[in-house]
């Protein structure tokens, strides 16, 4: 009979014994399977319904695929994918099922559709860092508890209204990267577990108690933990949180990193330096302007990759068919060399800008984009795609791409550590080992020399140190 792996049994025990909990398990360690296994057991005790919130592809592909893959050990699970247009989503909610998967984008629709008729006893927030932006306080009025919100995501605010009221008994936060950008990320996620009991009733009190604002030279000040903060935060969360890492339980194949430096041509270098210094340059008479330091950072990352948007606002640029100008093709040439050296081995290429994708498709017409179609993932894993272009925001969080290959190339770069870690683990050592592959994972970074590309790489390493510290400090002995 099929059973959980030895390190997964304590994970299942944790979610079964702590009604509102955080399960911080390294990517690829089976959080989805463990959750389904636990729900399956609980169905013997009480027949209830579970709502799984997840990124789009994870909700529509990963959870259903895992249900089918492990059906022999999940006889009590019936799963419905709440996706499609409004009519299709509404119909999916009426199916005879006990697990319903929904992408985070549709949370406001769900709340409006249910109109106070809440049927779920359990919420599983898969990749719970999507809830980190919550900023909420409560006050009592004649109408009951009212929520007074500051900044924060619309989806998180909508969920906050039902998180601790009604018949919702259980809340499980699943993530492999609980604090990708530092301990500040923990408050929003944890509020859904304990309504602010452990880390403070509102984000402001949490921030001012445990952090201090420190100036960074000529850059804006940032919030950094006080000396006592990490130990105290870890202690406060210890009773509801379990942390598990792959390296503690089995030998992983090596991850081999390789930085490939690109020297920008003289004219491209001149344009880059002009933008860096003046926040303004011109390409063929067309002005390119950055209105803020943040926009400048994005413009410089774009130029380092080989193209730059004409609009000051990136979102406007993305809506146009070709609202960008090419600056150089150094990274395209470098990628061509990687493809040649791979000698036909499949390669996953991470890009961050729409202009990157357009140029990649032109230079490598045989490549395919990772889109919303489940068939694309299946073709990749079946070895039918030799070059797959994927945006880290779309390719992270729960997708299994390890069967398709073990080579990843970062064509361009961004400051977001969570997306960076997630896309690596789509084909990373943990997933390779769990799938029975004893092969190294190769990650190539195409880096424009003496540009912001190098700053991003350095900043990722410093953030990773915070992430690793948190995961280690929150571990429990699994043998207990």
Descriptive report:
The chain is globular and about 70 Å long. The chain has 19 helices and 21 strands. The longest helix has 22 residues, at 452-473. The strands form six sheets. A seven-stranded parallel beta sheet has the order 3-4-2-5-8-1-11, sandwiched between helices. Strands 12-21-20-17-19-18 form a six-stranded parallel beta sheet, with helices on both faces. The chain has a two-stranded antiparallel ribbon with strand order 6-7. A hairpin with a 2-residue loop joins strand 13 (280-283) and strand 14 (286-289). It has helices spanning 8-17, 31-45, 56-69, 86-92, 107-114, 154-160, 186-194, 203-210, 229-237, 266-278, 293-305, 314-319, 330-342, 354-363, 374-381, 392-395, 417-426, 429-434, 452-473, and strands spanning 20-25, 50-54, 79-82, 99-103, 122-126, 136-141, 144-149, 170-175, 211-216, 219-225, 241-244, 255-262, 280-283, 286-289, 307-309, 324-326, 347-350, 368-369, 387-390, 407-410, 441-448. It is of the alpha/beta class. The protein folds into two domains: 8-244, Tandem AAA-ATPase domain (Rossmann fold, 3-Layer(aba) Sandwich); 255-470, P-loop containing nucleotide triphosphate hydrolases (Rossmann fold). The protein starts with 7 loop residues before the first helix and ends in a 7-residue tail after the last helix. Helix 10 runs antiparallel to helix 11.
